[in-house]
Each structure stands twice: as C-alpha cells, then as structure tokens.
Write a structure and sequence with these properties.
mainly alpha
C-alpha cells in the first residue's frame, strides 16, 4: 500500500516531467557541457602532454582500466549531459518532422529556448519568427509556445507525461 502511495506522489510531482524547465536550462547545460569538455581537454593536455583522444586510444590498445578514476567520473558526467541533450534534440527533431504543426512548433521552441543567445523578450522572438510564420500576435505566440511544449512533453516523456498519466488514470482506474 505504501509503495502505491509513493508512486502516485512521484507521478503527481511536476518536477519529474517539467519539459518547460528542461528547455529553460537548455542553453545553460549546452554552455556548461562545452566548457566542461574544453576544460577537461586542456587539463589533460597540460598534465599528460597529449590529447585525450590519443591517450584513450593508447589506453584501450594497452588494455588498461580507467575504472574508478577521476577522469572516468568526469567523462561519465559529460556523457550523461550529452545524452540528455541528444534526447531532447531528437524529440524536438521528431516533433518538427512528424507533427502537423511541427515546423511552426520547432521554430517557436528554437527561438524561445534553444538559440545560443537568449532573445530579450517576446517582441524579439516574434520578430525572429516572422520568416517562419505569418503575422503572429502575442496571444498566438504564447498559445503556440504552450502547445509546442505540451506536444514535446508527450514525445520526450512518452506515456509518462502528465497529460497521458491523467488520461490513463481516468480510463483505467486502479
């Protein structure tokens, strides 16, 4: 009985499937990942006098194990962040390619969350969207933004998305 209560609490907690929050962090994570990779490469080159790629090739050929080292831990953290970004970018790409409003949703998401430099406000975003959409009002932009995030959530989180869970609970009560 307690297990069911814990599962229900996790499913209701918006932090577990907050696509908008994830998108808001996209620029920071991308920047941080780039810095981490560059820092790791620089530190490695200064300490070992070689590029990390060459070193790893040599290590693998020699059959050495880097398990449990600080280098392995750092590489795993970078890899985990990279995988998360890749998953998000794949979901956005799928939305763009397959959804009936995918192209518009893509550009709304791109200019709102994914450009390397954050646009200052809705005016700048709407102006950037002009080549991709017809005249866009504020209310239409905000509506499209909400829809795009909701659709991306359903792709990214799949059947674990909040809307899907509520629908399943309604159709198939426990």
């Amino acid at each position: 009985m307690a297990k069911k209560k814990v599962e229900q609490d996790v499913r209701d907690n918006p932090r577990y499937h907050d696509t908008r929050r994830l998108l808001r962090k996209y620029r920071d994570v991308t920047w941080s990942l780039e810095l981490s990779v560059q820092r790791l490469k620089n530190e490695f080159h200064m300490e070992y006098g070689t590029d990390i790629e060459e070193f790893l090739d040599t290590v693998y050929i020699a059959g050495a194990d880097l398990g449990g080292t600080e280098l392995e831990h750092h590489a795993q953290c970078i890899e985990r962040s990279h995988k998360m970004l890749t998953l998000l970018e794949s979901a956005v790409g799928l939305l763009r390619a397959r959804h009936k409003k995918g192209e518009v949703y893509y550009w709304v998401l791109y200019y709102t969350y994914m450009t390397s430099q954050k646009l200052k406000n809705a005016d700048e975003i709407i102006e950037a969207l002009r080549p991709h959409t017809q005249n866009l009002s504020y209310s239409t932009y905000y509506r499209l933004s909400k829809e795009a995030v909701r659709e991306l959530s359903s792709i990214f989180w799949g059947f674990a998305s909040q809307d899907t869970l509520k629908l399943l609970d309604h159709l198939l009560p426990c």
